[in-house]
Amino acid sequence: MTTSSLVRWLGGGLLLAGLAAAYYSRQAAAPSTINPLYSVMLNGLLQESVPFVSVAQLRRQPASVLLDTRPPAEFAVSHLRGAREVGYGDFSLAKVQDLPKNAPIVVYCSVGARSEKIGARLQQAGYTNVRNLYGGIFEWVNEGQPIVTGHDQPTTRVHPYSPAWGIWLQRGQKAYR
User: Fold this and answer.
1) CA dihedral sign of residues 118, 45, 52, 128
2) C-alpha count within 13 angstroms, C-beta hemisphere, residue 158
3) Please, which pLDDT band fits residue 18 given cuts at 50, 70 and 90?
4) Residue 6 confidence (pLDDT)
5) How far apart are CA 22 and CA 146, in angstroms?
6) What is the model's pTM?
7) What local confidence, expressed as pLDDT, does residue 176 receive?
8) Measuring CA to CA, which residue among 55, 14, 51, 63 is closest to residue 35?
9) Using CA atoms, how far apart are residues 102 and 81, in angstroms rounded to an integer?
10) Cα 119–chain centre separation
11) What number of other Cβ atoms are within 10 A of residue 173's Cβ?
12) More confident: 12 or 164
């Protein structure tokens, strides 16, 4: 084995060990997904700065305000029924100024990273009941839950953000536009 091969092998092993450590250190706090590898990736990616809500928990609390933190083009392809598009790059608190500070709010994006950042901004602004949908719209669809188009019509199409992130979408039709 060459030195460069050994370095790559050790680096890959350390990466996997780090992901496994992140997964197991947060396993109690994080919900699970239907794909254990997706859970490992999410637990390494997400900071837990915003409390999680699982797909099952969200289905039991339908009175939540759903905020889709993806850009308008992704939202137009599909979103959770009743969600408001608030964006990510162009997000501003003015988009949610009509919401009471104690309203139950669930933020989501493709996997939960962008929504976690928007959720943290909401918390910093004084919103007290913000949750991040664990696994985002990908997990929602992976668990067989319905989504709608920008015209409120049922669909199976999901914008996967990019081909690299799209590997985590196991159900539904990947639609990049």
Assistant:
1) negative
2) 29
3) low
4) 43
5) 31
6) 0.84
7) 84
8) 55
9) 22
10) 11
11) 13
12) 164
